[in-house]
């Protein structure tokens, strides 16, 4: 079964004929993404009436499981780069119409290793959607993808739980400092800063952790303990101003326990902070 909800939602788009033809998937677990994309390939191609991921009855699922489906190509970097000749091979291979399936599909692992010349070759077939070619580019960080490619992709985030690479405490702490720095030191843009948080698509537990950290910073400040260097200007706040903040954060943590709209909650938090 497809584990990640962003990838699962592609099934619906496929059935509605609304699928983009090239996706850039940012993830904290490339192996799991690869498994999910292969599940997606099985599900859209399966010839059984009711697909289930254990399908062993149909030939297409079997071919996908054994990585022998002719219309599926999985590409890994050749050494330190995805090379121009790899992209040319792919382009030539996909000159023919898909065999057995609706789409020719490629999966590009470590897409950040595309260089200018291989990306250039790739652009030529990315931009021919009429050819029924579907691409999945997988990366740990979309910011490292060459711009000409990224700008043509639909970007999806596929994060997996139980992976300590990304949303560990250090990362949430770093995010907390960045967010507070913008809200309390930069100040200019107000609720626009909520994008810092929203872009991370945090789970509720992570958001609670983040606000707990914010609370700790204000409490430390109130108690004249050491606070992070970037936030030193908080020391100028009066006792009363700090208490107001502590109450507001407590209220926000309380509200997080309910299933409420995160965008609205964060907006409320920022606007109250400014009052
Ligand atoms: Zn099947």
Quick recap of the structure?
The chain is α/β, with parallel strands linked by helices and 275 residues long.
From the structure above, extract its key features.
2 domains, elongated, 5-stranded parallel sheet, 275 residues, binds zinc ion, Zinc Finger, Delta Prime, domain 3, alpha/beta, Rossmann fold, 48% helix
3D structure, described in words:
By secondary structure, the chain is of the alpha/beta class. The chain folds into two domains: 5-158, P-loop containing nucleotide triphosphate hydrolases (Rossmann fold); 169-274, Zinc Finger, Delta Prime, domain 3 (Up-down Bundle). The protein has eleven helices and five strands, in the order H-E-H-H-E-H-E-H-E-H-E-H-H-H-H-H. It has helices at 5-15, 30-45, 59-65, 84-93, 116-126, 147-150, 169-186, 194-198, 204-222, 239-256, 262-274; strands at residues 22-27, 72-75, 104-108, 133-139, 154-158. It has a five-stranded parallel β-sheet with strand order 2-3-4-1-5, covered by helices on one side. Helix 7 (169-186) crosses helix 9. The longest helix has 19 residues, at 204-222. The radius of gyration is 23 Å and the shape is elongated. The structure holds zinc ion. The site of zinc ion has 7 residues, from helix 3.
